[in-house]
C-alpha cells in the first residue's frame, strides 16, 4: 500500500516500513501518532482512493524514532570587489518517523 499523508504542512508519499524526516515536532520518542491519508493506492495503482480532503476511515500509524540535527548547510555571502565575505552554517532540527501501518 502507498499513501500520501500531510504532516504539519508538508505532504509525503509513504509505504509501510519507510522512515521519513520532518521538521522538529513536540513528540516523545517511541510514541505513536495516527493520521488520515489524503490518497491510498496499491503498488500497481489499480485500486486508488482519493479523499476530499482525506479518505474517510483511513488510518496511518507513525512512530517517532529519533530527534536529531540534520546535516549542516553552508551559507556563504560575498560582496564582489569589496573584500567582504561571511561564512555561516546551519543545522535544522528534525524528527525521524517510521511508518508502522497503512489501513
Summarize, please:
Helix content is 0%, strand content 61%. It is an all-beta fold.
Indicate the overall shape.
elongated
Question: What integer is the average pLDDT?
Answer: 90
The major β-sheet equals:
4 strands, antiparallel
Strand percentage lies at over 45%
Total of helices: 0
Query: What distance lies between the first and last C-alpha atoms, to the nearest angstrom?
Result: 8 Å
Describe the protein in words.
The chain is mostly beta strands. It has a domain at 2-66 and 96-102. The chain has no helices and ten strands. It has a four-stranded antiparallel sheet, with no helix packed on it. A four-stranded antiparallel sheet has the order 3-10-7-4, with no helix packed on it. A hairpin with a 2-residue loop joins strand 1 (2-7) and strand 2 (10-15). The radius of gyration is 19 Å and the shape is elongated. The N and C termini lie close together (8 Å). The model has no long low-confidence stretch (mean pLDDT 90).
Chart the SSEs and their pairings.
Layout: E1 2-7, E2 10-15, E3 19-23, E4 32-35, E5 37-41, E6 48-50, E7 60-69, E8 73-79, E9 84-90, E10 93-102
Antiparallel strand pairs: 1-2, 1-5, 3-10, 4-7, 5-6, 7-10, 8-9
Amino acid at each position: 500500500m502507498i499513501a500520501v499523508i500531510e504532516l504539519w504542512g508538508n505532504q509525503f508519499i509513504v509505504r509501510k516500513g519507510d522512515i521519513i524526516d520532518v521538521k522538529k515536532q513536540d513528540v516523545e520518542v517511541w510514541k505513536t501518532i495516527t493520521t488520515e491519508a489524503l490518497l491510498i493506492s496499491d503498488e500497481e495503482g489499480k485500486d486508488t482512493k482519493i479523499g476530499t480532503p482525506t479518505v474517510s476511515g483511513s488510518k496511518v500509524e507513525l512512530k517517532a524514532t529519533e530527534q536529531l540535527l540534520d546535516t549542516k548547510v553552508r551559507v556563504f555571502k560575498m560582496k564582489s570587489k569589496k573584500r567582504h565575505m561571511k561564512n555561516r552554517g546551519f543545522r535544522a532540527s528534525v524528527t525521524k518517523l517510521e511508518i508502522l501501518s497503512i489501513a
